[in-house]
UniProtKB/TrEMBL annotation:
The gene is leuB. This is 3-isopropylmalate dehydrogenase. Substrate binds at residues 96, 106, 134, 223. Its cofactor is Mn(2+); Mg(2+). It comes from Selenomonas ruminantium. It catalyses: (2R,3S)-3-isopropylmalate + NAD(+) = 4-methyl-2-oxopentanoate + CO2 + NADH. Signal peptide: none annotated. Catalyzes the oxidation of 3-carboxy-2-hydroxy-4-methylpentanoate (3-isopropylmalate) to 3-carboxy-4-methyl-2-oxopentanoate. The product decarboxylates to 4-methyl-2 oxopentanoate. Pfam families: Iso_dh. The record marks 141, 191 as: Important for catalysis. NCBIfam families: leuB. Residues 4-351 form the Isopropylmalate dehydrogenase-like domain. Its EC number is 1.1.1.85.
Length: 355
C-alpha cells in the first residue's frame, strides 16, 4: 500500500523548502519502506498566475484524496495589488475550510544546540517544550464582518466573534488527547473577564476536562498568558485557545524557540491534515538557495507521525535534525562565528545522510 502525499510548494522559498523536505522523506521512505508517492499541485500567487485563482479546484481535490498535505508557503509583494478575494493568502484560508482543518498544532521545543538564539535567557528557556493548539476555522476570523458603514455620523467597521459548544468541545478534546501523550497538562486561554465567547469557551473546556481526570487543566487570561510565555515558558505543556488569541500567542511562543525557520506545524483536519512550516514565503531570500528548510523537514516528520502513524521514520528525521545542529551546521539565518555555514541543499544532504 502506498501513501499519497500532496505537495504544494506555493510561492517564494516554498519550492526550495518543499524540495528539501521531499528529499529527506524519500530517504526515510527507502530506509523504512514506507511506500510514499508524491503528487504536486499549485496554490497561492503561483496558482493565480497560471489559473487566475489562488486555490484551483484540482488542488483541493488532490488534497482531499491525499493521506497528508505538505505545504510550503504562499504570498509575496508581486500579488499585493490583486483583489482581496484572490490574494495568495486566500489559498490557506480556503484549504482550512475545504479540508475542515479545525486545529493548528505548533510545537515549540528549544533544541539545546540553539538555546543561544532565543531572545530569553538560557536558564529560562532550557527545557521549554510546549504545544499550542489553536482553533482554526471559527471565531472572529470567520465571523460576519463589515468593511465600512456609517454609524452615528462616523464610519466604522466590525468583525463578529462567535463560538459554538461543539466547536469548543472538538478542539478541547484534541488538546486533552495531545496532553495525554505528553506531560499531561492543559492550559486553556481566554478573556472570560470581558468576552461572552470566552465565558462559553471556559465553561465548555471545564466540562470536557471531566472526561480526562489524568490531565491537569488550568485557565489563564490571554494577557497573562502572553506574559507567562515570556517569563516562564517551561510551565506549559499544551496551551489550547481560540483562533485570534492562538494566532498571536503562537507567534510569541515561536520567537522563544529562536528561529522562525526552524518551527513546524500541523493543521489537523476531519480527514486529511496539512503540514507546513510556520514562516511565510520569505520573498527577500527566495531563489537564492539559502532558506532554512528545517521547519519544513520537521513538518514532514509530523506528517509521518500524525497522518501516517510512521513513528520510527518521524523519530529518525527529528533525530537527524538534532544531530546536524549539534554538529554545528547552520544555514545563514542561524550562522555565527565558529559554526559551519551551509546552504539549503547542503543542510538537506547532511540531514538526509543522518536519517
Ligand atoms: P516570512 O516568514 O516570510 O519572513 C520573515 C523574515 O524571516 C524574513 O526576513 C525572511 O527572510 C525570514 N525567514 C522566514 N522563513 C525563513 C527560512 N525558512 N529561512 C531563512 N529565513 C527565513 O514573513 P513575512 O515577510 O511577513 O511574509 C512574507 C510573505 O509570506 C507575505 O506575503 C505573507 O503574507 C506570507 N505568509 C505566508 C504564510 C503561509 O504561507 N502560511 C505565513 C506567513 C506569511
Ligand atoms: Mg500568525
Amino acid at each position: 500500500m502506498a501513501y499519497k502525499i500532496a505537495v504544494i510548494p506555493g510561492d517564494g522559498i516554498g519550492k526550495e523548502i518543499t524540495d528539501s523536505a521531499v528529499e529527506v522523506l524519500k530517504v526515510a521512505d527507502k530506509k523504512f519502506g514506507l511506500g510514499l508517492e508524491f503528487v504536486y499541485h499549485d496554490a497561492g500567487g503561483t496558482a493565480y498566475d497560471k489559473f487566475g485563482t489562488p486555490l484551483p479546484q484540482e488542488t483541493i481535490d488532490a488534497c482531499k484524496a491525499a493521506d497528508g498535505v505538505l505545504f510550503g508557503a504562499v504570498g509575496g509583494d508581486k500579488w499585493d495589488k490583486v483583489e482581496p478575494a484572490k490574494r495568495p493568502e486566500k489559498a490557506i484560508l480556503g484549504l482550512r475550510k475545504e479540508l475542515g482543518l479545525y486545529a493548528n498544532l505548533r510545537p515549540v521545543k528549544v533544541a539545546d544546540a540553539l538555546i543561544e538564539y532565543s531572545p530569553l535567557k538560557p536558564e529560562l528557556v532550557r527545557g521549554a517544550d510546549l504545544v499550542i493548539v489553536r482553533e482554526l476555522i471559527g471565531g472572529i476570523y470567520f465571523g460576519e464582518k463589515c468593511e465600512s458603514e456609517q454609524h452615528n455620523g462616523a464610519e466604522r467597521a466590525w468583525d463578529l466573534e462567535n463560538y459554538s459548544v461543539p466547536e469548543v468541545e472538538r478542539i478541547a478534546k484534541l488538546a486533552f488527547e495531545t496532553a495525554k501523550l505528553r506531560r499531561g497538562k492543559v492550559t486553556s486561554v481566554d478573556k472570560s473577564n470581558v468576552l461572552a465567547t470566552s465565558r462559553l469557551w471556559r465553561r465548555t473546556v471545564t466540562e470536557v476536562a471531566k472526561a480526562y481526570p489524568e490531565v491537569e487543566c488550568n485557565n489563564l487570561y490571554v494577557d497573562n498568558c502572553a506574559m507567562q510565555i515570556a517569563v516562564k515558558p517551561t510551565q506549559f505543556d499544551v496551551i489550547v485557545t481560540g483562533n485570534l488569541f492562538g494566532d498571536i500567542l503562537s507567534d510569541e511562543a515561536a520567537v522563544v524557540g529562536g528561529s522562525i525557520g526552524m518551527l513546524p506545524s500541523a493543521s489537523i483536519g476531519e480527514c486529511t491534515s496539512l503540514y507546513e512550516p510556520i514562516h511565510g514565503s520569505a520573498p527577500d531570500i527566495a531563489g537564492q538557495g539559502i532558506a532554512n528548510p528545517i521547519g519544513t523537514i520537521l513538518s514532514a516528520a509530523m506528517l509521518l507521525r500524525y497522518s501516517l502513524h510512521e513513528e520510527k521514520a518521524a523519530d529518525a528525521i527529528e533525530a537527524a535534525v538534532d544531530t546536524a545542529l549539534a554538529e554545528g551546521y547552520r544555514t545563514p539565518d542561524l550562522w555565527k562565528e565558529g559554526f559551519t555555514k551551509v546552504n539549503t541543499s547542503e543542510i538537506t544532504k547532511i540531514i538526509s545522510e543522518r536519517v
